[in-house]
Amino acid sequence: MQDDRIDYKDHIASDLAANSGKGKRHKQSLPGKIITGEIFVENKVRSHYPFALYCCALVVAYIAYVFHYQHLQRTEIGVKIELQEERSRAVVFSSMRMNASRHSNIINEVERRGLPLMESSTPPKIVDVVPHPATTVTTPKSQSNE
């Protein structure tokens, strides 16, 4: 019984032998070589592989740079929004503190809490204290001025 299977290795080898040199060579156009990938086999193109690899590395680095910049930009916008919220919160607390420290509000708060405090009717006096360091020597002229 004969085996009806096709031996693909023999088939490919016979096709290569038929197309190698004795018959007409079929030249493909540049777009055809690019589409089929035959352009990458040529020696002219092989010599430019390092440059193509360098260009690919630059493209990948540029894409990474853009993503990193966008991340920084989103972070900056988030920080600006948070800073604006904190500033508005600080303004609110400042106005509440200013309102609570008004004289009339202090008096109302003392009365509300029932504290036995009275407002002084005499204005406060400023007491000047001249510091006398222990190391200075007083002269008779300075003692007579006191």
Task: Offer a concise description of the structure.
The chain is mostly helical and 146 residues long.
Structure description:
With 146 residues, the protein is mostly helical. The chain has 6 helices and no strands. The protein has helices at residues 8-19, 30-36, 43-46, 49-100, 103-113, 140-145.
* Tally of DSSP helical segments: 6
Global mean pLDDT: 80
Radius of gyration: 47 Å
Shape: elongated
Distance between the termini: 141 Å
Broad structural category: mainly alpha
DSSP summary, beta strand count: 0
Strand content: under 5%
> What does the largest sheet look like?
none
Helix content: 55-70%
Give the low-pLDDT segments.
Answer: none
Order of helices and strands: HHHHHH
Describe the structure using short key phrases.
single chain, 63% helix, 146 residues
Topology summary:
Blueprint: H1 8-19, H2 30-36, H3 43-46, H4 49-100, H5 103-113, H6 140-145
